[in-house]
Amino acid sequence: MGVIDELKHAVKGHILTKEEELLPYKTDASYFSGSKPMAVLLPSDVSEVSNILKICNREGINVISRGGGTSLTGSATVLTNSIVLAMTRMNRIIHISSEDRYAIVEPGVRIDDLNYELSEIGFMYPPDPGSSIAATVGGSISTNAGGLRGVMYGSTKEWVLGLQVVLSDGTVIETGGRVLKRSAGYDLTALFVGSEGTLGIITLATLKITPLPERIGRVIAFYDSIERAGAATAIIKKSGLTPITAEFMDKVSLDSISKNMGLSFSDSGNSDYMLIVDIASTDESLNRHLEKALSLIKGTGPRSVRIIYDETEIRNITNSRKGLYSSILSERDREGQYAVMGDIVVPPSTLSNALLDIRNLVGKYGFKVALFGHIGDGNIHANIIVNPSDAKEMERVSALMNELGRIALINGGSVSAEHGIGLEKKRLLRMEMEYKESSRNIELMTSIKAVFDKKGILNRGKLL
Amino acid sequence: MMEEIKRLTEVADKCINCGFCESVCPTYAPAEFISSFSARGRMLIGKELSKEIAVGKRISKDVSDYYYSCLGCNACLQVCPAKINAGEVSDLVRKLVVEGKTSESKQRKMIAEMIVHTTMKYNNPLGLKKELALWARGLSFFDDSPILFYTGGMYQMMPYSQTLSDLQIRFGSFFSSAMARLFNRFLFAIKVSKLLGKKSEVDKYNSTLKDIYTLLSNSGVKLSYLWEDEPYPGTFINDLGYTQEFKSYASRVTELFKSKGIREIVVVDPHTYQLMKYEYPKVVPEFDLKVTYYLDKLDRGILKRRAGSVTYHEPCLIARGIENYEIPFEILNSVAKVKLPRRNGKNTSCCGGPDGLLFPSIAKKISEERSRELKREKSDRIVSLCPICISHLGVNVEITDLSTFLIEATNH
Lengths: 464, 412
Prior knowledge:
The complex is a heterodimer of chains A (464) and B (412). Chain A has helices at residues 3-10, 19-22, 46-59, 111-119, 137-142, 150-153, 188-192, 226-238, 251-261, 286-298, 311-322, 324-327, 351-365, 391-410, 426-435, 440-452; strands spanning 15-16, 39-41, 62-66, 82-86, 93-97, 102-105, 123-124, 160-166, 172-176, 201-208, 210-211, 215-223, 245-250, 273-281, 304-308, 338-345, 368-374, 379-386. With 464 residues, chain A is α+β, with helices and mostly antiparallel strands. The two termini of chain A are 35 Å apart. In chain B, the strands form 3 sheets. Chain B has a 4-stranded parallel sheet. Chain B has a 3-stranded parallel sheet with strand order 3-4-5. Chain B has a two-stranded parallel sheet with strand order 1-2. Chain B contains 18 helices and 9 strands. The longest helix of chain B is centred in the middle third of the chain and has 32 residues, at 154-185. The model of chain B has no long low-confidence stretch (mean pLDDT 89). Classes of the chains: A alpha+beta (464), B alpha/beta (412). Chains A and B meet through helix 2, helix 11 and helix 12 of A and helix 2 and helix 3 of B.
């Protein structure tokens, strides 16, 4: 029996090998073009995943696990001699406990689907990446995804209690569990979060859940100055008020959502920056908190500021913001251009300076760039519009990314906030460790990888 | 054809491959999560096809199933942040398939051609004639009225097409191929399909048409009717990508209406409305017939509010196909307490019906999933207003046509 037949048997026929079936799996949402996989396997349970890994480990075949295929750094992009493990058939919500506040779910559950089910009982799973409609639980754990609610709830690592993982040799292990406290040796659960499928394949996750806020209201403001927009959220947080989301978009971003979503603001006065601050509170205190946020924002000198109560307007702005990466191609100057997405984070108190430095940096390179991000937790995105097949242009993008990363590091932040490392940021990861004089971290990571995956069959060539 | 390739390139090139469309595409999960059967896969394959066809290659790969299985429901467009229409990519590739630019599965081709041939010959895809007008026996129409009551045979065909779909699921592709081969060779054999309609189902759909007629009649609208001469609107021909045939067929239907002195067509289902209002004017020169949905003619004063709750399954073409057509919801909301399922409004879910003949097992799974969603609201009734939705969802849930529900509201 050939290896493909053996794999076919392992997934009970759920295997794709025809060229036209393989094509959509070559790459993810990043700009990397990828190679055609040998096969795509669609397992339905942990035993099938285990059998697949036993075969691949024996044969030295690279295994790339894939959720919603929404990676922006090439984590799920296919390199040569690889199979893709598409986890989308494993999409059951196994159990929800509102008493113990956890949900046990399979990796292929999409984040919005999980949150819909949780909302029916008044709960939510807070990590909320822009791609939550498509991103899966497994994929978002693998990249330690963040999102819009990071300012209040942090990123995915804060919300994973335990995992079931299949190791490279097919062994199935359980880490963590259903309890909020655990002091039992090394935290292997945390090790798998953000490991981008390089240490094992997640087949089940126990996630922490929390009650939905009673009410949410929004303040929007328009600025001519990026430093002032950057200062606003730090001032709000200093006052003791924690927004549930705090986002910003620049003019290129606003032009894009205006063209694609038909969303425009009569009070923007052609301003260069928009700030969106959401406050979660109780029925009784929401207005008081919104007024407080409004007053604090007014103090930072915006061109205009107002509170929004209209649910449709709130939803439209949120959806536009969440789809900003995908809609940005409307701003390109010529066909063939794509978006390369920068993703750095700085302490919010340094945002004002960091944003000014970034704006100047972008101006120096002359690319068309959309600046936006989760300003509340200091996370800034730079969508650079370039032609990825133009080597010279990409060299300059690489230099820009280096400088962007350096701004993050100088200000006490990181070169990667929430998109992981993938193919794109391997060099930047090393730069961060060197900057911190902690290059030993890379050696430790390499050693850890070797312990979990001796033959190097798990997402080879990514992260390290 | 160059225009279609150019358009395909233009649309596909704007896609950044974020995957939002895949998460809402109704055919993705029922096709065992194979990406090529999702909006995202169709877009990515379309991108490759456009590149290859543009340099003169004929594509030997059979990709036709991916595009023929697209329901045209436009759920993808609603969530696409770049407002790219993956459904349009399916339309364009289907046209390329028909033009022979790519190969296609013989079985699908036979079924598609069977539908097109029989419609062109008999003015109805199933060769129905007498069966079309049974519902109207004993009813009065105004022969001189320029306002036509136009069913397009859509409600009347449901009992027959549902049985065909069931047979395909039961007997598999062998049945489909054999049936299509037979009908393509001996077109008249299609008339055997009239034996397939269950009497109880025939009575149900005929009764619905009577309810629509009664609502209009009670609203004081004077209508003419074409009885057995009523042609099918040509939806399938257009959807399957037979551009030239559709153009010719639509012109023929329009001429027939004009020869009868018709000035306004009152349609009773969303598919016919969409086709005649938006597609006919594109292909029929100087198309000047007024196309009206029957609910627009309704005198709302005859309706009374009733007790109980109702879950509304909003058909795709009402929620997304017809710009801002919120009249059905408004009317329903005025007579009952309406509950909406998770996917509603612009994000409503397809019933699976458009895949009923070509991909019956995909259609069945979509219908089952949507039915679960509708039942979850635990209303007293489930209501919709498209014969295809009623037929496909009706297998799993008890579902009432809006017209029947409104008739009950007039008698309440």
